[in-house]
Design goal:
Layout: H1 6-24, H2 27-41, H3 46-63, H4 68-91, H5 97-116, H6 128-135, H7 143-155, H8 160-176, H9 184-196, E1 215-216, E2 220-228, E3 232-239, E4 242-249, H10 263-278, E5 287-291, H11 300-305, E6 309-313, H12 320-327, H13 332-351, E7 354-355, E8 364-366, E9 373-375, E10 382-383, E11 388-390, E12 407-409, H14 410-426, H15 431-435, H16 452-461, H17 472-483
Antiparallel strand pairs: 1-2, 2-3, 3-4, 4-6, 5-6, 7-10, 8-9, 11-12
Helix pairs in contact: 1-2, 1-3, 2-5, 3-4, 3-7, 4-5, 6-7, 7-9, 8-9, 13-14, 13-17
Enzyme class: transferase
InterPro entries: Kinase-like_dom_sf, NEK_Ser/Thr_kinase, Prot_kinase_dom, Protein_kinase_ATP_BS, Ser/Thr_kinase_AS
Keywords: ATP-binding, Kinase, Membrane, Nucleotide-binding, Transferase, Transmembrane, Transmembrane helix
């Protein structure tokens, strides 16, 4: 080596090999990392910079799945350049012969990794402390390490101040050593960070994991995946210091039928979500913003770049389903308060002439202390016309009997809410009795702490005749009268 001591080459080689494991997390990555380590140890002169660049390209391939073909092309071009240089090195015997054997294995392995790797969720956070520390001591020959560090630092939202501080330390270190081009690694570190931060809209055309670590619409930092439904993805995002949930309409459903890929469905989604924006209730998850494209999507890449979404309040206390999994059933006093809050939320929904269509424990969300419950997931709600609506999308486990005929009304939501409250009290979904031809027993038959008034109103909500169920206004008034006693 002309500029870098052998022990430093070994350090950088180890860091890059470890990075390969963290990014790919596969046994093949360990083998590739060992080969890369040996390759750098036997490199010299300009070959060090070329090999470091090739290794960095392989590492970036794990991150930027969307650029697979471009990375493969650049890798091939740089490999050809290296082979031309190696011809002169071979003639002048500048490298030991084992190097050429290792290099050949490295090239084959790398091309296979680029082409065959299937994108999966990254775990960049574990790698960053190593990369940040290494970036403070990067030599010009290892400048591609600065590219990798700057890009990954931006993707996990590391402060620009910290990145700039590392760049200053790197510049001071190289200048003190009298290194030529001492400005290059720190400059590349900062430029890589700037080129990535809030500019990467997706990493892969594989939704929803392709949005992880990116910025939705260039504004909202995607933190993690919250859930996947038949019609949508739900992501946790960050804007400034606040957290939100974003619900994205899927490009296609599980059977491949188009959703966001169909302009008619896209239009209906926009109508429903804009109506949701108008809904203001303390017991309904709040909607802040709706985004729809001006025209339909031509392909999945266009969809990933700017998907249709609605920005929602983030409820960090989990769902009623989570609570029931942990406790099986809840105390009657707690459920009574839950009942009051959900009835008020459903009243506010129906008052806007909207039928929810999907009341179930998964769609009842809590604040962190679990003292406030809200109705969420208005994704398949329809604006009711004449009090009735087509209901092919309701969750069957909590759907009213009339839903089997393909129609639902406001009373269908009452039935679903009755199922939810009954299950919260007893741990049993009352639809089990209906489906097997039995009359629904009162909740108190399974939970002795249930008061008579709850037995009475819940059984009315679960009446098989929609006309005999109370309205949500009746529920609110009844519960208020109980609390007023």
């Amino acid at each position: 080596m002309h500029h870098v001591a052998d022990y430093l080459v070994a350090v950088f080689a180890v860091v890059l090999a470890v990075a390969g494991w963290f990014l790919y997390r596969h046994i093949v990555a360990i083998v590739w990392g060992i080969i890369s380590f040996i390759l750098l140890l036997y490199s010299t002169g300009v070959i060090v910079a070329l090999n470091t660049t090739l290794i960095a390209l392989i590492l970036l391939r794990a991150v930027y799945d969307r650029y697979r073909d471009q990375i493969l092309l650049i890798f091939i071009i740089l490999t050809i350049m290296k082979m031309v240089i190696l011809t002169e090195y071979y003639i002048n015997e500048k490298l030991v012969y084992i190097y050429y054997f290792i290099d050949g294995i490295f090239i084959v392995f790398s091309i296979l990794i680029i082409y065959l790797y299937r994108f999966k969720p990254l775990k960049i956070e574990r790698l960053m402390p190593i990369l940040v520390l290494t970036s403070a001591f990067v030599y010009p020959e290892f400048t591609p390490v600065s590219v990798l560090a700057g890009t990954l630092a931006a993707l996990i939202d590391v402060s620009f101040v910290l990145v700039a501080l590392v760049a200053v330390v790197n510049f001071y270190y190289l200048t003190a050593l009298g290194q030529y081009l001492s400005f290059l690694p720190p400059l590349v570190l900062i430029l890589s960070y700037i080129a990535t931060y809030k500019r990467v809209l997706y990493l892969s055309v594989n939704p929803p994991i392709g949005w992880l670590y990116s910025w939705l619409g260039g504004r909202y930092k995607v933190i993690r995946l919250l859930g996947v439904g038949g019609f949508s993805y739900v992501l946790l995002v960050k804007f400034k210091k606040s957290m939100y949930a974003v619900k994205i309409l899927r490009f296609a459903d599980d059977q491949g039928a188009p959703l966001a890929g169909d302009e008619n469905i896209l239009y209906l989604f926009g109508q429903e979500m804009n109506r949701y924006l108008e809904l203001k209730s303390y017991h309904v998850v709040r909607a802040y913003e709706v985004y729809l494209p001006a025209v339909g999507y031509k392909d999945i890449g266009q969809y990933m770049r700017n998907p249709p979404y609605i920005l929602l309040e983030y409820m960090d206390g989990g769902t009623l389903r989570d609570l029931l999994r942990a406790k099986k059933r809840l105390p009657a006093g707690y459920v009574a308060e839950l009942f009051r809050q959900l009835a008020q939320g459903l009243y506010d929904i129906h008052r806007r002439n909207i039928i929810h269509l999907d009341i179930k424990p998964e769609n009842i969300l809590f604040t962190k202390d679990r003292k406030v419950a809200k109705i969420g997931d208005m994704g398949i709600a329809k604006v009711a016309i004449g009090g009735r609506v087509q209901s092919s999308f309701m969750s069957p486990a909590y759907a009213a009997p009339e839903v089997k005929n393909g129609e639902a009304s406001f009373s269908s939501d009452i039935y679903s809410l009755g199922c939810v409250i009954y299950e919260a009290l007893t741990g049993i979904n009352p639809n089990v009795f209906v489906e097997n031809g039995y009359a629904i027993p009162p909740p108190s038959a399974y939970a002795a702490d249930v008061p008579p008034w709850m037995d009475e109103i819940i059984l009315k909500m679960l009446d098989l005749d929609p006309a005999k169920r109370p309205t949500v206004a009746d529920l609110v008034s009844f519960i208020a009268s109980i609390y007023g006693r």
